[in-house]
Amino acid sequence: MPRGQKSKLRAREKRRQARAETKGLEGAQATAAAEGESPSSACLPFGGEPQNLPAADIPSTPLAPQGAPSTTNTMAADSCTYPDEDSSQDEKNATSSKGTKGRSGDPLNDKVVLMVQFLLQKYQKKEPITKADMLKLVTKNYKPHFNEILRRSSEYMELAFGVDLKEVDPIRHWYALVNKLELTFDGTMNNEEGMPKTSLLMIVLSVIFMQGNCAPEEEVWKVLNMMGVYADRKHFIYGEPRKIITEDLVQLNYLEYQQVPNSDPPRYEFLWGPRAHAETSKMKVLEFLARLHDTIPSAFPSWYEEALKDEEERARARAAARARTAAAMASARSRAMARNFSHTK
Amino acid sequence: MQPEVPSYMQGSTRRVGIMTDVHRRFLQLLMTHGVLEEWDVKRLQKHCYKVHDCNATVEKLEDFINNINSVLESLYIEIKKGVTEDDGRPIYALVNLATTSVSKMASDFAENELDLFRKALELIIDSETGFASSTNILNLVDQLKGKKMRKKEAEQVLQKFVQHKWLVEKEGEFTLHCRAILEMEQYIRETHPDAVKVCDLCHGLLIQGQSCETCGIKMHLPCVAKYFQSNSEPRCPHCNDYWPHEIPEVFDPEKEREAGISKSNKKPLRSRQH
Which residue in chain A has the smallest CA separation from B47? Predict the structure, then answer.
C-alpha cells in the first residue's frame, strides 16, 4: 500500500496542531522551526491545506531550476520555507521567525535542514563544496550564525549518515565529504568515490593482477559471477556493476578498458589505471586477495614474488624521488643565498 | 561508540532511536540507489549488520526503519515505504518531506528540462490510463520556460528522466516511476488538487489503476488484488455493480524468489487497464 495509515495520521495530526497554534504563513514557519517537529507545517506552502495557498505560485518554486550551482542552492533554500523566490519575502520571514523565537528557541533548524540537504546532494554527486556555496544558502539575517549552522549540519551528517565534512583546503575553503564507514584497506583508496565501488574495484584489480596484469573481460565476469555480481543485473549493493567497471572506474582512472587488438568480434580487456598504480600496489591487492581466501600472501608464491619485486621497485623510485627533491631544494637554497649575498654587497 | 544525540536533534516527544554504523551504512546505500524493493532492502539490512556488527541480532525491518526515521525526523527526511502501482511490490525510498523533493531534481536539470517534466507530469495526471504519449509531451516543447528546446533534445531529456528514475517508459508512453510517486505525492496533490486521482480503497495518490465503468471510482491494481482476493464475484465497493476487469494477483515475495529472476529486470505481467 502507499504511505501507511499511521504515518499519514501522524502527519495530519501535526499539521492540525501547527495550524491551531499559529496564524498565517510566517507564524507557522516560525513555530515549526521553533518546535522542530511537524515536517509538513514547517514549509506551509507544501504541507498545509491546498485551499490556503495561491495555487498559481506553487508550481514554479519546487522545480526551481538550476542556473549556476549557487542559484540552485538558493532556490532550494527558498523553496522550502517561502512561497516564492523573492529575497525580501525571505527577510520578512526571517525577521518574524526571530520575533517568535520565544517558543522553544530553534529557528536555526530550518537553515540546518537546508544545509544538510545541500550536503547530501553534493555527496551523492561527488562534487566539491566551497564555503561560498554554503554561505549562499544562509540568508542575510542568519549569516552571523553560519558557523553554528555549519557545525550542526556536520554533526547531523556524521550522526545520521556516517559522513564527515572536512576542510581539505583551508586557504580556498574547499570542503569534501568523506565516508567514515568506508572499509578501506589501510585507507589507501580514495574515500570520496562512494563506498560500494571500492571492494568491487579491488576484486577487479586482483583479477587483472592474477591474469598477468591484463585480464580479458570474460575472466573478470567469471570471478564476479561467482560472487553473485552479474553484468546484466542490478546488484543490491553495487547497483549497475557493468557501468561501474567499464565506465565509472575508467573515468576515475582506476581501470583501463580497451579493445583487444585485432579482435573481431570485438573483445575487451582490463588493465590497472594510473590511479590504481598510484594509490595501491600489487602487494596490497595480494593482501586483499589473501584475506578473502583466509590465508597469507606468500601462499601464492609466483604472485608473491611479483608483488615483492614491485615493492622493491617502488622503494627505489621513492628513494630516487627523495634524492631529486633534496638536490633541487639544495640548489634552490644556494641560488637564493647567492642572490642575497649579491644584494647585500 | 555512539555520540549522544544533542537536544536540538530530538524533534518530537517520541524517544529518539540510536544510530549505529549499521544504520548509517544502510542509509548511505539506500540513498545511492534512490529506491529499492523490499527484498533488496532486507538483504541490504543484513549486509550492513554483517559488515558493521556481525554479532548483533538483525532487528525487524519495520523497527529498524522507524529507528532511523526517528533520528531523521528533525531533518524532515524519512525512509518512506510504498507499493509499485503495476504489480504491488513494496518499495522504499529516502524522501524529503520539507521540500517535497522535487528539488532533488532541481540540481540535476536545467530550467527548461524541469518545465518539460512538469508538462509531462500534468499530461500523466490528466490522462485516463496514467500514461502520456511521447508525441503529446513533445508537442508541448514550444511552451517550455527557459532556453528553447528542440523535439530531438526533448526526447533525450525524457530518457534522462527515465535514467534518473523519475519516469518510466512503456511502448512509447511515459508514466511516473514508483520513486517519483513516493517522493512527490504531497507535491502532486497540492499542485493538482482537482485533476489528481485517488484510490477509493487506500485513498493514496493514483496514477495507474482500474475504474468502475458505472460510477467512475478508481482503485490501484494491488488494492484491487487484495480487496477481491478469492472473490469469485467481484463487485464495485461503491456502487456494487459487477467489476468488469481482470483481477490481478496479490504480490507474493516467496513466488518471486523461487522464480529466481532478478527483480529489476522482470517486466510486469499485467497490461495497463483503465
Answer: A237
